[in-house]
Write a structure and sequence with these properties.
Layout lengths: L3 H15 L2 H13 L17 E8 L7 E7 L9 H11 L1
Length: 93
């Protein structure tokens, strides 16, 4: 009998070994952004589709650090919740 939980854990460890540090960082950023919620509704900004993509690259002046760019939108150009969502985004990313 196959223990699916253990197989998933082994598979995740194998994936982590084949991914670059940049890929692992981007996965961590996605996970952190799922902790940012639209204050008007209890749904995170990733599941709402506000995040279009994340790019990361080693910083020029400090290669051990990364510059992360997040492409996103809000519901409208004048979204009043931007003042609440953007600080959370900066804190998490």
């Amino acid at each position: 009998m196959i223990d699916t939980e253990k197989q998933t854990q082994i598979s995740s460890q194998a994936d982590a070994q084949t991914k670059t540090p940049t890929e692992l960082l981007i996965e961590q950023v996605w996970a952190q952004l799922k902790l940012c919620y639209d204050p008007e509704i209890p749904v995170n900004i990733v599941d709402l589709g506000f995040i279009y993509g994340i790019e990361a690259q080693p910083a020029l002046e400090k290669p051990e650090k990364y510059d992360v760019n997040i492409r996103m939108t809000l519901t409208t150009p004048g979204c009043s919740m931007g003042g609440f969502i953007l600080p959370c985004l900066k804190l998490r990313a």
